[in-house]
Amino acid sequence: MPNPFSAVDAEASEPPFEQLRTQLISAVRDGTVVAGDKLPTVRALATELGLAANTVAKAYRSLEADGVIETRGRSGSFVSAHGDATQRRLQEAARDYAELARELRVDAGEALDRVRAALGIH
């Protein structure tokens, strides 16, 4: 079982639970972990990283709410087949934007120019 979590920086401005969230999301994006991979238990990860179990549990709850992981009762927590919530939201926004452009009869080139401008790409 790959462990996508590394040390947590107690001095960082980002709270420990958020650091854990970010680490797992990055691991999903770069393919370090894939759908179905089992994650360490809350207690095991807390012990390994020197964190309170509640901190790890909070990260896991947040990741589950975002659809990145799923908990299967006593079987544990696993990377969800639904993947990264950020990527899912971005895809939904792109689909909605494309639909709006078609409704407004804006050609694809102009729609892409608008996106590039909004992203600051010239």
Largest sheet, in brief, is: 2 strands, antiparallel
The mean pLDDT is: 89
CATH fourth-tier homologous superfamily of the largest domain: Winged helix-like DNA-binding domain superfamily/Winged helix DNA-binding domain
Strand content: under 5%
Number of helices: 5
Overall geometry? elongated
Task: Determine the N-to-C terminus distance.
Answer: 44 Å
CATH architecture of the largest domain: Orthogonal Bundle
In the CATH hierarchy, what is the class of the largest domain?
Mainly Alpha
Overall number of structural domains? 2
Rg calc? 18 Å
| Strand order, largest beta sheet | 1-2
Structure in words:
It is a single chain. The chain is mostly helical. It folds into 2 domains: 16-79, Arc Repressor Mutant, subunit A, CATH 1.10.10.10; 85-119. It contains 5 helices and 2 strands; from the N terminus they run αααββαα. It has helices spanning 16-30, 42-49, 53-65, 85-103, 108-119; strands at residues 69-71, 77-79. Strands 1-2 form a two-stranded antiparallel ribbon. Helix 2 crosses helix 3 (53-65). It is elongated, with a radius of gyration of 18 Å. The model has no long low-confidence stretch (mean pLDDT 89).
Give the SSE map.
Layout: H1 16-30, H2 42-49, H3 53-65, E1 69-71, E2 77-79, H4 85-103, H5 108-119
Antiparallel strand pairs: 1-2
Helix pairs in contact: 1-3, 2-3
